[in-house]
Amino acid sequence: MPINDQMPNAAGLFELLDEDERRTLAETGGTVRLSANECLFQIGEPGGTLYVVNSGAVEIYIKDTAGQKILLKTAESGDFFGEVSLFDARGRTATAVAATECELFALSRADLIAAFRRNPETALGMLAAMGGMLREADKLLQTNVARNVNEMMEKTMSPLERVTDWIA
Description:
Blueprint: H1 19-28, E1 30-34, E2 39-41, E3 49-55, E4 57-63, E5 69-76, E6 80-81, H2 84-88, E7 95-98, E8 102-108, H3 109-118, H4 121-146, H5 149-156, H6 159-167
């Protein structure tokens, strides 16, 4: 894969690598192309690959117990995702669907570990980027949990349901 302006830094992930190391990493990975609305992976599926968006956008989401879609992130050019399952060798923690036609850079667990061995600072860059993502997830949780359930219900109730609820 030729080096481009998006892959080498990937939201700070590879910023601690020199140009030669970035080139090696770029040549190691592969390219994945998706059509709009195409599913890349679903929650629970085996992981093992990190993705960097070269072009387009990918929605990363989960569904709550009521089946409501909770958008965690829309990964766009330069963003990365899919890193969690690289570390614990467990299933995917979210679903990824192409929001638009897109091209992704794909890096396997083995290739990423080899990069960490060649340049341990790469791992620090990934940990820092993951820390930022965890902070965003915390904000999302705080926002959703802090909502008043009664207010949410009132917004979705029809006038007849409101009257019935008031009578009860």
